[in-house]
Design a protein that fits this description.
The chain is 22% helix and 28% strand. With 742 residues, the chain is of the alpha+beta class. The chain has 3 domains: 318 residues, Beta-galactosidase, Chain A, domain 5 (Distorted Sandwich); 302 residues, Alpha-Beta Barrel (TIM Barrel); 108 residues, Immunoglobulin-like (Sandwich). Strands 5, 6, 7, 8, 10, 11, 13, 14, 18 and 19 form a 10-stranded antiparallel beta sheet that branches. An 8-stranded parallel beta sheet has the order 27-26-25-22-21-20-29-28. Strands 4, 9, 12, 15, 16 and 17 form a 6-stranded antiparallel beta sheet that branches. Helix 5 packs parallel to helix 6 and helix 11 runs parallel beside helix 12. The chain is globular, with a radius of gyration of 28 Å. Bound molecules: (2R,3S,4R,5S)-2-(hydroxymethyl)piperidine-3,4,5-triol.
Length: 742
């Protein structure tokens, strides 16, 4: 009893000192800073002790005055520290939980406190607002500015911080998160992703328990190989496609990241995300600003589908290069030739490109290196001169031939890398990331170049620039990255090795920015031995990404499904290859769930296969605006149903494409019931016809008027309430439907 009294007294004192309750200050009197989008609100509040806290993140309330009631109902008030819900938790003062920021001051002191100074909201456009909140340590000349960039229509927020000080000497940033957000619910359900080469984007969904769950990468490059930074957290129960509250988040950074999800002692969830501080305490000189990368997130109270459409439209509108523009279909030679080709073979492939009807021929790995020719993956990276045996007349000649064949030409590079067997390695060993006194250790027989070094940045930039000098009409670049960083060490950084992982990514972005300044619109595919570098930090410089080297269409249905929660179809490069056992039609039908390409031997196709591909490309060209720019709705989940089904709907809801695939090959499986469509206009009348039919086949959907003359009319209401059966079965494993208003 005695102990209880002591505790109770302490509790009251703490209430008063934190100012969260019991100070007499009402909600209206406290500085309250709302960040609002169409459907979401984040409410920051300055306590009477000047701490900045998050009192609400969720669905916007009808009456803004009621946000003040949130702390009371959620036990936010009166924790031991008064800062469990800090908007940016500083370490070393009162904090007892995972911090967002930890520093060692110039005098060696490890404590930090951050107090509100002021805030400004700038209206960037009709859609975008930028809030900045300045926080300062009362004892040290150390400050942090928090940024909240809100995209009203998309319901998306980007959060980052800028850290600065004017202490006498250098301050070491031990931890420097981008965002520290706070959610309140009865339970929290995390959907996270893991993978490896050819196994990208495998989801796991679990209820979070108390303590910290960490999602992270320490790979340096190819950072997403084992785990991408994308995740979702549902509140109270796992959100479904159309129901439940869920937050999708991701760090816009192509290197090591760390996201901690911690349920605090009051059962609130704190999510702290940023660059991984692993091996990276960062020395910050006085007057220098350290800007963290943005953490992007969206909150939906209408399930996962809405959250994904939020991110997809944000990416198209603001992040991807040319997100509202077009893309080129292509024929790639990687799987048809690997390293084994010459001018004659490439001439044939250019003709095949034309015959197939795609826009561009993409020349993959193996075209360079002379002292150490790139005839397999053991040599040549770094020596970006045409191999004289394979291409005696250079790239310019191939490019000219492409032009006269009426197709565009694109090329593969992997400019961040070096093969130990290369002239570059011999000439510039100091440019290579490796430990000076340790044995070299390789990933795909290669090493990484030190992009923290400006000379290396210039070299990488010039690789790209020289390609445009050789072929000013160069229409496409595939930028690959096949190795992780082992033995992290930079000759260039001397004593500052702990800056390496951060400076590598900054160096990469500087190069990409220079390329984009000179070549703003050239399409570039972000590839990393598959999908090991798919993040919005990199994607701001690219038009598309390569989800995986695994192009087995059955596997791709699952992968593309999960990627689509975070990235729009226009960014997903999907190629038809010889992976998998499914018929060509199935492979093509899966690849159209994004940006279509081919990597097959065209002259080995049967007459019907070739005709099917040619027709499918023409049909795709007619429908790609809806797939690329339309709203995506997931109708039937491959993880729980035998049929995967999804659709893309145009903004005016006048046309849609519905894709249906059999994913369970057991006896008698198929679409046994109608599948409910979504996103249509209930009042509009639609016809449905099956497209992408294999030559000679008829469709039970199109009736006797096959191929396309379906006369039956359905209301949007009917299709969304009762649904439509695509008639998927073992004999019809993929069905593409076109839905159109009369
Ligand atoms: C890995 C990529 O993912 C492949 O598509 C191909 O470009 C190879 N690299 C080439 O080495």
């Amino acid at each position: 009893m005695k102990n209880k009294n002591v505790f109770y007294k302490g509790w009251l004192i703490m209430f008063c000192s934190t100012g969260l309750l019991g100070t007499g200050a009402s909600y209206a009197q406290m500085v309250t800073i709302p960040v609002e989008t169409a459907k979401t609100a984040i409410i920051l509040q300055v306590a009477s002790n000047k701490d900045l806290n998050t009192i609400y993140l969720g669905k916007k309330l009808n009456n803004p005055d009621e946000y003040g009631n949130v702390p009371g109902v959620y036990k936010q008030a009166g924790d031991y520290t008064g800062m469990y819900n800090s908007a940016y938790t500083p370490a070393g003062s009162r904090n007892l939980l995972e911090p967002a920021i930890a520093v060692t001051h110039a005098d060696g002191n490890n404590s930090l406190d951050l107090k509100y100074v002021n805030h400004t909201t700038t209206r960037v456009s009709d859609d975008i607002s930028l809030l900045s909140v300045q926080l300062k340590d009362p004892v040290y000349d150390f400050q942090v500015t928090l940024y909240y960039k809100s995209y009203y229509n998309e319901d998306v927020i980007e959060q980052w911080s800028v850290i600065e000080h004017h202490e006498k000497g250098s301050v070491t940033l031990q931890k420097y998160a981008s965002a520290n957000i706070d959610l309140n619910a009865g339970s929290y359900w995390l959907r996270q992703y893991h993978g490896d080469w050819a196994k990208e984007m495998r989801p796991e969904e679990t209820e979070l328990s108390h303590g910290i769950k960490t999602l992270d990468s320490k790979l340096g490059t190819r950072a997403d190989l084992f785990m991408p930074s994308v995740f979702m957290v549902s509140l109270d129960h796992p959100a479904t496609e159309d129901e439940g509250s869920v937050l999708f988040g991701s760090l816009e950074w192509s290197g090591n990241f760390k996201t901690d999800l911690e349920i605090d002692p009051q059962d609130n969830l704190r999510i702290i995300s940023g660059i991984n501080n692993y091996a990276s305490p960062y020395p910050l000189a006085a007057g220098q600003a350290f800007e963290t990368p943005p953490f992007v997130y969206t909150f939906s109270a209408e399930g996962k589908g809405k959250a994904s459409r939020n991110l997809q439209s944000w990416a198209r509108n603001y992040k991807l290069v040319d997100g509202k523009g077009s893309r080129m279909t292509l024929l790639n030679n990687w799987e048809s030739t690997y390293f084994d080709f010459n001018e004659t073979r490439l001439s044939e492939l250019l003709k095949d490109t034309k015959k197939l009807g795609v826009d561009l021929f993409l020349l993959d790995d193996g075209w360079f290196g002379n002292s150490y020719p790139r005839n397999d993956d053991h040599a040549g990276l770094g020596d970006w001169q045409e191999n004289r045996k394979k291409l005696p007349n250079g790239i310019a000649a191939i490019a000219r031939e492409a032009q006269s064949d009426g197709v565009k030409f694109g090329i593969w590079i992997e400019p961040e890398m070096v093969s130990p067997k290369s002239d570059l390695y011999v000439k510039h060993p100091d440019w290579v990331v490796k430990q000076p006194k340790r044995e070299e250790y390789y990933f795909r027989n290669q090493l990484v170049l030190d992009l923290s070094n400006t000379q290396v940045q210039d070299f990488v930039y010039q690789i790209v620039d020289s390609l445009f000098i050789k072929d000013p009409a160069l229409a496409y670049i595939k930028w690959d990255c096949n190795a992780v960083i082992y033995n992290a060490y930079s000759v260039h950084l001397h004593q500052n090795q702990s800056q390496f992982y951060v400076e590598y990514v900054r160096g990469l972005y500087k190069v990409l920015q220079r390329i984009r300044t000179k070549y703003p619109n050239v399409p570039m595919m972000l590839c990393s031995g598959g999908g090991a570098r798919v993040d919005y930090g990199a994607l701001q410089y690219f038009t598309e990404f390569w989800p995986s080297d695994n192009t087995d269409p059955l596997e791709r249905i699952f992968m593309q499904w999960e990627y689509s929660y975070f990235f729009p179809a226009i960014a997903s490069a999907n190629h038809v290859t010889d992976w998998g056992k499914q018929p060509l039609k199935f492979r093509v039908d899966v690849a159209i769930m994004g940006k279509l390409g081919f990597d097959i031997v065209i002259d080995k196709l049967s007459g019907n296969d070739l005709k099917f591909c040619q027709d499918a490309i023409a049909i795709y060209n007619a429908n790609k605006p809806v797939i690329w720019q339309g709203d995506q709705y997931r109708l039937s989940d491959p993880r729980t149903e035998s049929v995967a089904s999804l659709m893309y709907v145009s903004a005016d809801r006048s046309s849609a494409v519905m894709l249906n695939y059999l994913v369970n090959y057991r006896y008698g499986e198929g679409s046994k019931r109608p599948i409910r469509l979504k996103g249509l206009d209930a009042a509009k009348k639609y016809t449905i016809s099956e497209i992408n039919l294999y030559p000679g086949s008829t469709s039970p959907i199109n009736g006797t008027h096959s191929p396309i003359n379906s006369t039956k009319v359905y209301s949007g209401d009917f299709l969304m309430t009762v649904g439509f059966n695509p008639e998927i079965s073992a004999g019809r494993t993929s069905v593409v439907l076109q839905v159109k208003t009369l």
